[in-house]
Amino acid sequence: MRQPADDPRNLFHRTADLAADYLETLEERPVGSRASRDEVLRALGGSLPERPEDPAAIVEALHDAAARGTTATGSGRFFGFVVGGALPSAIAVDWLTSTWDQNAGLFVLGPTASVVEEVAGAWLCELFGLPVDASVAFVTGCQMAHVTCLAAARHDVLERAGWDVEQDGLAGAPPIRIVAGAKYHVTVEVALRFLGMGRGALRVVPADAGGRMVTDGLRDVLGEYDGPTIVCAQAGEVNTGAFDDLNAVADAAADAGAWMHVDGAFGLWAAAGPATRHLVDGVERADSWATDAHKWLNVPYDCGLAFTAHPQAHLAATSAHAEYLMKSDAGSERDESDWTPDFSRRARGYTVYAAIRALGRQGVVDLVERTCRHARELAEGIGGLAGCEVLNDVVLNQVLLRFADDETTDRVLAAVQDGGEAWPSGTTWDERRAIRLSVSNWRTSDRDVARTVEAFRKAIG
Fold first, then answer.
1. CA-to-CA dists, residue 181 to 186, 204, 242, angstroms
2. Rounded CA gap, 85 and 444, in Å?
3. Which DSSP symbol is given to 228?
4. Predicted structure pTM score
5. Are 367 and 273 in contact (CB under 8 A)?
6. What is residue 137's three-state secondary structure?
7. Of 291, 260, 234, 282, nearest to 153 (Cα)?
8. What's the pLDDT score for residue 277?
9. Sequence-ordered list of residues with C-beta below 8 angstroms from that of 336, at least 6 positions apart, any chain
10. Which residues of 40-63 are buried (b: 16+ CB within 10 A; e: fewer)?
11. Which is the most buried residue in 51, 149, 229, 279, by most CB within 10 A?
12. At what angle do helices 142-160 and 186-194 cross, to 10 degrees?
């Protein structure tokens, strides 16, 4: 009976060829999926296999199904949601990460994985202008980055109120008030639910027309309560790319004795570029920050990042101890599970390390500034078409637009997506339908911009 690893070298070579073929055809491949659920199910479904199958045949079957059943999110013309591509260096190291198959939770299980996280974390703090002694956690995405940061915040504000939440839980604890702008991202709300604080703890501050928190309103809300408080600011509203005034938020939070958390899922990367750094003025004054590497750094899924300015609060909220864990007693050795909600976890630091080395500081700056330029060009080109209205000041990489009415907006969106040339996503803004283009991919070129504008021109008819 054939075993799964009889001939790994030939299997891996063939897999590498298929992967390269896929990447080399992204330029002309339709961006949207061309297969229905039923078509993919016919190709890959069936009854539970009774006997082992040839690994190469399995790879070929998945590759064939993916030819039509995969959305080409790595294409330079995919602008849906805020999804980056994947740099070749990061893809290659991601393969090695799977090959090494380390459980990156304990130093003893993978010293290299631990040290790489330590090094990459320090590089990220430098790129973002965060405190050099900030704690860093490599998590699945910004959802779990919020959970990690807000768990540290919950510990800190309750400890200052004389309550040990790790020992006694939330029952009977002083109420925690969470304050956020009206356009906060849903992942912040979900994190609060996970942490037992709930939507009822959330006080919403009005936002301006661009989605920025109105800081005068923030002070009004903060003045209503003097108990444990967490303020959630936003660096990059998901539709418009707008930034809260982080210095003003920091001033208000400091005066109220509140913990300040920054949702910088993609916008925190603005800190890397001289042309965009002003958007995050004051970001270093926060207590915690959440972002993604699988967005603008263009590493493979999944990789989110949580930072706090208070490592002891971070450790108190997320670390665990047991005799069998064999945790290091050496203060210089990093047990990664101390900093994340996970025990068993992928060694996500490798791809971040590889991407930063491949790009260097200047490459990161160029990536951010180039994609922002492409966003402005898309806004100018599509915004100049008949009946189109650009709804936002394109300060970063987000373009928000609509047409005369909801029906026309949805029709144009569907026509562009179905045409295969580009893939923007739909959204709702001010209770009306809109189209959003997020430029986050290192592959996006001037030609991709021109092709996308032409796709919209044809869709308008």
1. 12, 5, 12
2. 9
3. S
4. 0.96
5. no
6. strand
7. 260
8. 98
9. 104, 105, 106, 107, 113, 114, 117, 138, 345
10. beebeeeeeeeeeeebeeebeeeb
11. 149
12. 50
Task: Give the strand pairing for 425-429 and 432-438.
Answer: antiparallel
Q: What's the full length of the chain, in residues? A: 461
Across the chain, how many H-helices and E-strands are there? 14, 11
Paired tokens of 179: 């304050």
Average pLDDT over residues 275-282: 98
Yes or no: say if 283 and 262 are a contact pair by the CB < 8 Å rule: yes
In 219-282, where do the E strands start and end? 229-234, 259-263
Task: Tell me the pLDDT tens digit for each residue of 117-144.
Answer: 999 999 999 999 999 999 999 999 999 9
Position 43: which residue type? Answer: A
- What does the mean pLDDT of the chain come to? 96
Return d(Cα 365, Cα 334) in angstroms, integer: 29
- Amino acid letter for position 377: E
pLDDT at 330: 62
Q: How does pLDDT run across 415-452, given as a tens digit for each residue?
A: 999 999 999 999 999 999 999 999 999 999 999 999 99
Share of the chain above pLDDT 70, in %: 98
**95-113 as b/e, with b when 16 or more CB fall inside 10 Å?**
eebeeeebbbbbbebbeeb
Q: How far is CA 424 from CA 235, 411, 427, 432, in A?
A: 22, 13, 10, 17
Q: Check residue 338 and report its DSSP letter.
A: G
**Cα–Cα dist 127/55, whole Å:** 42
Q: Which two tokens stand for residue 391?
A: 């709804």
Q: Look at residue 455 and tell me whether its pLDDT is greater than 60.
A: yes
Position 415: which residue type? A
107: pLDDT confidence band, cut at 50, 70 and 90? Answer: very high
Phi first, then psi, for residue 371 (nearest 5°) are -70, -35
pLDDT of residue 326: 77
Which DSSP letter does residue 243 get? Answer: B
What number is the average pLDDT over the span 103-116? 94
CA distances from 316 to 61, 149, 313, 345 (A): 47, 12, 5, 20
